[in-house]
Automatic annotation (TrEMBL):
InterPro entries: PDCD2-like_regulator, PDCD2_C
GO CC term (a single one): cytoplasm
Full protein name: Pre-rRNA-processing protein TSR4
Organism: Schistosoma bovis (Blood fluke)
Start and end residues of each Programmed cell death protein 2 C-terminal domain: 235-329
Domain of life: Eukaryota
């Protein structure tokens, strides 16, 4: 079962720490870890430093590491048109959780979410956007560092997704043979399950007058319009599950199916939808000009999909920041794979 996240308009006034997930605000590192260097978060189009947009605390099962994803974007107009304006960095931190459950992080995007019976969690936000955060870490003497962001900060509500999503209902087929369950192990697996019938349907989609260059695909529209009373989520998390593409997966996705570091398979982890634009606001503390930016709808995306190493490979002595594989699908029918080599 997937988890879905909705950005909350509330901004609780507590100081964030590294084990929280939030939208906008200031990036918070693990203890004794410096913010990512400029070359790690440099836009590949304009070469300017990208903006921090989201921090998601995503521990994997019984891993011995804390694990967080940090998401960056360049909102300059020409960069967005290219679809080459996103980056996702992973950072991990070795720690043995205290057996006292009160000391454990109570909110996360965890791979073992089936046992989470909560109705939803509100994650914290930056209480003071004008200054650098020094996050106090429980039971440790070290402190985290911060990277000041340009967006207003909001919490995120998390829920279990009670809607079962399969390839067959996304693509409007009734053939059980093309169903891909949420336990799909890898990119290669779900690509192999994408049947020839789906490829044939592409011809009909291309002939449809309603699927112009700025339109969502029929498949994604079907998904969005059947999301219930709260509408489409902002964030969808489904570790090793089925991504929801705008149309067909990129034809060359199989070329990026293995981790560039350890050779393990890559798996789908999460995706963002364009609905995040409803909550994405530039900080009122900043007075900066952006090239070709619509401040009321900052991101020209349909969806952004993030894939990660199945083993979440990490060197405790050598790693601080690891780049993940990202697929950007823009509202101009551009699909771009951003993947480290």
């Amino acid at each position: 079962m997937a988890l879905v996240g909705y950005i909350n308009s509330q901004t609780p006034g507590h100081i964030l720490n590294y084990s929280e997930s939030f939208f906008g605000g200031n990036l918070i590192t693990f203890p004794n870890v410096k913010p990512p260097p400029v070359d790690k978060i440099q836009c590949m189009v304009c070469r300017k430093t990208m903006d921090f947009i989201m921090q998601l605390y995503c521990p994997i099962g019984d891993s011995k590491y804390h694990r967080t994803l940090y998401i960056f974007v360049c909102i300059n107009g020409p960069c967005q048109s290219s679809g080459n304006n996103w980056k996702v960095l992973r950072s991990q931190y070795f720690i043995k959780f205290d057996q006292n459950s009160q000391s454990k992080p109570c909110t996360n995007w965890s791979a073992e979410y089936e046992n989470d019976s909560s109705d939803g969690e509100s994650w914290g936000q930056d209480a003071d956007k004008s200054s650098e955060i020094q996050c106090k870490v429980e039971n440790l003497n070290e402190q985290s560092s911060s990277l000041i962001g340009r967006f207003q900060c909001y919490s995120i509500d998390i829920y279990e997704d009670t809607t079962i999503t399969t390839t067959s209902n996304i693509t409007n087929h009734d053939d059980d043979d093309i169903e891909v369950k949420s336990s799909s192990p890898s990119i290669k697996h779900f690509l192999s399950k994408w049947s020839e019938k789906v490829l044939i349907d592409k011809e009909f989609i291309e002939e449809d007058d309603n699927t112009g260059p700025e339109a969502f695909s029929d498949e994604l529209l079907s998904y969005i319009t059947n999301r219930g009373e709260y509408g489409c989520e902002d964030i969808r998390y489904c570790w090793s599950g089925q991504p929801i593409f705008n149309g067909l997966p990129p034809s060359d996705l199989a070329n990026y199916s293995t981790c560039h570091r350890c050779g393990s398979e890559r798996v789908f982890e999460l995706q963002l939808f364009s609905t995040i634009n409803n909550s994405l606001k530039l900080s009122t503390l900043l007075n900066e000009d952006y090239d070709g930016v619509n401040v009321s709808w900052l991101l020209n995306i349909v969806t952004v999909l993030i894939f990660t190493c199945r083993d979440s490979c990490w060197s405790q002595t050598a790693d601080d920041w690891v780049e993940e594989c990202v697929i950007v699908q823009t509202d101009k029918n551009v699909t771009n794979i951003i993947c480290p080599s």
